[in-house]
Amino acid sequence: MSKIIRIGTRDSELALWQANTVKKNLEALGHQTKLVPVKSTGDLVLNKPLYEMGITGIFTKTLDIAMLNGDIDIAVHSMKDVPTALPKGIVQAAVLKRANYLDILAFKDNEEFLGSRDAVIATGSLRRKAQWLNRYPTHTVVDIRGNVNSRMQKLMDNDWNGAIFAAAGLDRIGLEHEHTIGLTWMLPAPAQGAIMVVALENDEFVREACAELNHEPTAICTQLEREFLRLLEGGCSAPIGALAYINNEDEVTFKGVLLSVDGTKKLEGEFTAPLGKHENLGRDCANSILSRGGKNLMGEIQRDTDSIEIFSTKKLTQDQRFLFKNDLEVDSEDFIKTSPNRIPAKILKAKMQNVIITSQNAVEALLTNVSANDFQFENIYCVGRRTRRLIESRIGKVKHFEKNAKKLADYLVDHLEGIEVTYFCSNLRLDDLPTILADNGITVNEIEAYKTKHTPVEVPKNVKGILFFSPSTVESFLELNKADKKAYCIGESTAKKAREHFSEVYVAKIPSVESVIDLVNEGYNK
């Protein structure tokens, strides 16, 4: 037991209490440990509701990265904050015995407001907000953020009637409020009140050490609740509550609820089974709710929840999404689709002194027609570093490249060998390059290598910034959307098109997806 187990945790008082609990339990078993506090985005960004930040994983992502980087061995979380799908390589190592799972209402003077038409309640939880409005539809619910202590202070400093807290959080740090009511009618968040320990899947020593902390009844119940959440959620933040418990007769009861954001719609389910035959309770409840209108309700929630702030007109990979500031909620779709054209082999196998290729799509289109060995290109000119890299890895040496088509045209006017070029392009292309060349006596033989088709998507109204990666994506976007947002562009050609419609246009320093994301991170203001 010589290995020191490094325990990663958020640095709030509640998170440290939870981490220290795990630390004491491990040390009681004879293990050496060390706490490694890490600040998460959920702690740093206090001016937005959690659901607007993409609540799933907001408090765990920083620790996941630290673990995958080898900076910590385990991470300790409030289990309700942990996404239902853990990152590849990270596994659930233990669930500690569950504490009080109820939500409680802390209020100031008296509870007479509960019978009044008008009252103001504070919570940053979409689930609590929806359930409160379902029960008290005339009340107003306002957002409140921060750790437990700061939220309690905000309650005292504002004219609100009350604020909703997790009972376990108050209990664990010994924070008592003079006036509280247990909200027994409100279903908690799945796994509320439980502490989860995660570890690297390939770290057998650490996983075996943590397994001794596992509380099996809590693990059973929280697994059912998280399965219910996973089946309903579908990646969308939604008002979902769930609770499973085992009674004295070894019978497992499961309750679940899904509501609309405003609380006007509510779908519930309750299922019971003997312990040992309980495995499908969460799934059965989710399927029951989905079959009774839950699918439509989730669709409404996905459309109505104002959480997306940045939208990319090119589908982003998971790694690219991780590059955004953690507090930015991002969505993406392909606003254009491309398909290669059939080009006669005789044309592509002919000798060509000067060839222009302005996109990776053109490279791929050429290679679907003939083998790279068949090309007889003497001088290849292109636009973009990535296009150059693709050409040099698949076809041959690039003589010269520029950041955009206009700069390339200007260069060719002064440096081209000969007076003729072959330009492999799309059916949708800007006029800059061929026009400049033609005006300077250079013959441009255009060959349509691929077709570009607009596939526009209507973006949520709350989106403030759009990522564009070609002039065609700008055109496609405008078919269904207004130019009332910030435009973040991959290069000058794209920016030129954007400037025709958008008042705020920003251009990446390097023509790459990552550079556009950096542009957003550097200049985006809420």
UniProtKB/TrEMBL annotation:
Family: Belongs to the HMBS family.
GO molecular function (one): hydroxymethylbilane synthase activity
Pathway: Porphyrin-containing compound metabolism; protoporphyrin-IX biosynthesis; coproporphyrinogen-III from 5-aminolevulinate: step 2/4
Keywords noted in UniProt: Porphyrin biosynthesis, Transferase
Top-rank EC class of the record's enzyme: transferase
Tagged with keyword Amino-acid biosynthesis: no
Lineage, broadest ranks: Bacteria, Pseudomonadati, Bacteroidota, Flavobacteriia, Flavobacteriales
Function field: Tetrapolymerization of the monopyrrole PBG into the hydroxymethylbilane pre-uroporphyrinogen in several discrete steps.
EC annotation from Swiss-Prot or TrEMBL: 2.5.1.61
Record-annotated Tetrapyrrole biosynthesis uroporphyrinogen III synthase domain positions: 338-517
Name of protein: Hydroxymethylbilane synthase
Pfam family, one: HEM4
Alphabetized InterPro entries for the sequence: 4pyrrol_syn_uPrphyn_synt_sf (IPR036108), 4pyrrol_synth_uPrphyn_synth (IPR003754), HemC (IPR000860), Porphobilin_deaminase_cofac_BS (IPR022419), Porphobilin_deaminase_N (IPR022417), Porphobilinogen_deaminase_C (IPR022418), Porphobilinogen_deaminase_C_sf (IPR036803)
Annotated CDD domains: HemD, PBP2_PBGD_2
Name of the gene encoding the protein in the UniProt record: hemC
Domain Porphobilinogen deaminase C-terminal residue range list: 220-290
Subunit structure: Monomer.
PANTHER family in UniProt: PORPHOBILINOGEN DEAMINASE
Domain called Porphobilinogen deaminase N-terminal: residue spans: 5-207
Catalytic activity: 4 porphobilinogen + H2O = hydroxymethylbilane + 4 NH4(+)
Cofactor: dipyrromethane
Coiled-coil zones: none
